């Protein structure tokens, strides 16, 4: 056997071993290490099968030892093999494809028999050529047995006679291979119908016809291989384009997300700049206020100094003017009258005067409203039932509300509406305001145990204390669980658009809060 090498064979066969095959779902499915002639068309002269990652090097080694290691002759005909490799695109140390071309060669002609193509990256083994069926029937079972035995050298090969038989079969003329000698009727018909050949023993005509058929078979085999490679390249390109489209879509989404984030950061930057300007203005106002306070303090000290001197002078002069009057009683007491009677009268009169001064005021209205400046537009008539009375007590802070509760007696009051705390959160922490609210509710409960108390949440506001007001409202929600007759009121019908800093704008509380309190 003559061996022609276009690439040096790696006798360790490690160059052809891959850890994992590439998956190609678009390729035609073929059986595992079996031959099926029905998969491809008969005119394609092509068959294929697949193998595994563990056995592909055994197949390559067997093909090499079987066809390329020794010279094989049958008479004057020699079996010639050509070994060609295609390196992998991503790794030059690996082979992508191996092509083994088998041909017969004598003194005058060389005829291609079959071409064995081994795809190392996918595990696909493809056979093409005019003697495809002869190879599949005679050679494939022998090579399959050698692969199963995992033959390691040429000394274990016992198929030399089989190769010579295969070489002898493919070297016969085509007519002898194709005609069925078991059917004489066919031979008779062919003999009678065909005209006699002018020169049946012309060897040149027969060789030309054989050469033409071989060339056509080789061309068809090459075309099929080219078509499969082009299809595979097309599928790879399509897969790459799909992956690139996905990457482009992901980049577009990422760009959109970054643009949205950038817009949010830009708005935050604008707000920070605005807050910085407000901070500078507040610092300037505080500085001016401190300066004014220092000036007033200085002027006050200057004014107090001469007044103190004048008062000292006045007291000195007064002491000098006072006469020296004796303090002893020159009159004797009257023993016949009872002096205790007048003293008791004077004492009782003084006690009655003090009682009148200390006695609290009385309110007989059924509804008492304790509210800060947010209630200046309230119409008390809208908050009570028909034929019932309402009293509005203005209290700026919780402390002033507690003082009002202590100043009055509420004999017929059934309902207390409490809305205080708007001004307290400007100076006091949330916990302190909550404790003062509990103290106020306790005072109301002690004076009127059966009265109902409606505790109003703070209204929404448009300044920096909005969060503090919301936190206080959360504490107010827990207070009804601590007191018997306390109900919490939430102003869900109001929002920040109707606010001016901490107070309601004109007519807003009258039209919204009043009706809401009336419904409750």
From TrEMBL:
InterPro entries: SGNH_hydro_sf
Protein name as catalogued: Uncharacterized protein
Gene3D superfamilies found in the cross-reference section: SGNH hydrolase
Domain of life from the UniProt record: Eukaryota
